[in-house]
Design goal:
Largest sheet: 4 strands, antiparallel
Structural class: alpha+beta
Low-confidence stretches: 1-10
Number of strands: 7
Strand content: 15-25%
Distance between the termini: 27 Å
Radius of gyration: 22 Å
Shape: elongated
Number of helices: 4
Strand order of the largest sheet: 1-2-3-4
Length: 167
């Protein structure tokens, strides 16, 4: 006897459908990198140029080299973030050198928050933070579109309530 529809079940061992982060998060982080390291380079160049001479002002190029390296690393980090909604849990995967995958069962979720600071709001972004009974398994999905963040919050809350009803 078979119950349920075959369309609702996921094939055991099948690869989950991953969703990446929107490009707005990468734009925001790269802009912050350029602004802060650009200001540091200008301040360092002026300070060294006035106090030590123009030859020493060349050391102001170090923050610019760091900005170039940071630009590439931010892109790699952004591409490493992804999440997948499965039947019983949420997967969050991230990391370039050290890959980290967090599995959050819907029934263990206690609180799902959508947060957005002033810089995130300016770029039209929001983060979803999941709180579970174990503090070590709290998870965050940064840089989502606010509508997607609210949709995800509502869906996770609904699934969490349905799964925890039997506890």
């Amino acid at each position: 006897m078979e119950t349920g529809s075959g369309q609702d079940t996921e094939v055991a061992g099948a690869e989950p459908v991953w969703t990446g982060l929107p490009p707005g998060l990468l734009r925001m982080r790269r802009l912050l990198l350029v602004v802060w390291l650009g200001l540091l380079a200008v301040a360092l160049g002026l300070l060294l140029g006035l106090l030590c001479g123009p030859v020493w002002a060349a050391f102001a190029l170090l923050p610019l080299a760091l900005a170039g390296w940071g630009w590439v690393m931010l892109g790699r980090n952004w591409r490493s973030w992804r999440y997948a909604e499965r039947a019983d849990d949420l997967l969050i995967s991230r990391g370039v050198l050290w890959r980290e995958e967090t599995v959050v069962p819907y029934g263990r979720m206690q609180l799902v928050e959508v947060t957005s600071g002033p810089v995130e709001r300016h770029f039209g972004l929001a983060s979803v933070q999941l709180h579970t009974a174990a503090a070590a398994t709290d998870a965050t999905i940064p840089g989502l579109d606010p509508a997607e963040a609210e949709r995800l919050r509502d869906r996770l809350t609904e699934l969490g309530e349905a799964r925890s009803a039997g506890l």
